[in-house]
Amino acid sequence: MEQNNIHQMKQVLEAALLTAGEPLSLDDLQRLFLDRIERATLRMLLDELKTDWQQRSLELVQVASGYRFQARSEFSVYLARLNPDRPQRYSRAAMETLAIIAYRQPVTRGDIEEIRGVAVNPNIMRQLLERNWIDIVGQRDVPGRPSLYATTKIFLDDLNLRSLSELPPMEQFAQTDVQLEL
């Protein structure tokens, strides 16, 4: 590959990633080019872009849905001033429910209630479904066929995770009181 071609390909990737409203997968990025581009070449170009942006206010990150540019975390305090509305806070019950789904998925409401020891408020499940953090992924093959819940790629994207394996160990939650604001 000649140097001019590589430079132009990086510019195309950069433009697409900066203007996309959501993360772009490798398949999405491959469609930018008329000639077939190997995934390995695409990853190499993305790594170069990541390096090119290291000293800038934005960074190229990989999340579950693909790649996206986002502001570096040290600028979040400044950017929050543009939108002074309070971030949505989730109740302890909602966070416990979400944690159970994330760590034990797929689970039914009955599984969640058994683990928490209390009934699950339908509003909590609706709130998590509306936020697109969880989804119904099937039904358990038992009488009543209860719905099975699992987390979504949007959940992973919002937490800047590529996969569930990047979640902190469950023991960490027993030691601290974790608040999630998004």
Q: Any descriptors?
A:
4 strands, two-stranded antiparallel sheet, 2 domains, alpha+beta, Arc Repressor Mutant, subunit A, single chain
Summarize the structure.
With 182 residues, this protein is of the alpha+beta class. The protein has nine helices and four strands, in the order H-H-H-E-E-H-H-H-H-E-E-H-H.
Task: Describe the fold and architecture.
The protein is of the alpha+beta class and 182 residues long. It has 2 domains: 78 residues, Arc Repressor Mutant, subunit A, CATH 1.10.10; 84 residues, Arc Repressor Mutant, subunit A, CATH 1.10.10. Helix content is 45%, strand content 13%. It has 9 helices and 4 strands. The strands form 2 sheets. Strands 1-2 form a two-stranded antiparallel ribbon. Strands 3-4 form a two-stranded antiparallel sheet. Helix 1 crosses helix 3. The termini are far apart. The C terminus is likely disordered.
Number of strands: 4
Kindly report the average pLDDT value: 89
Q: How would you spell out the order of helices and strands? A: HHHEEHHHHEEHH
Count the domains. Answer: 2
What name does CATH use for the topology of the largest domain? Arc Repressor Mutant, subunit A
Binned, the helix content reads 40-55%
Outline, from the CA principal axes?
A: elongated
Largest sheet: 2 strands, antiparallel
CATH class of the largest domain: Mainly Alpha
Count of discrete alpha- or pi-helical segments spanning 4 or more residues = 9
At the fourth level of CATH, the homologous superfamily of the largest domain is: Winged helix-like DNA-binding domain superfamily/Winged helix DNA-binding domain
Ranges where pLDDT stays below 50 over 5 or more residues in a row are 176-182
* Radius of gyration, whole Å: 20 Å
Intertermini distance = 42 Å
Which architecture of the largest domain would the CATH scheme give at its second level?
A: Orthogonal Bundle
* Category from helices, strands and their pairing: alpha+beta
Strand content: 5-15%
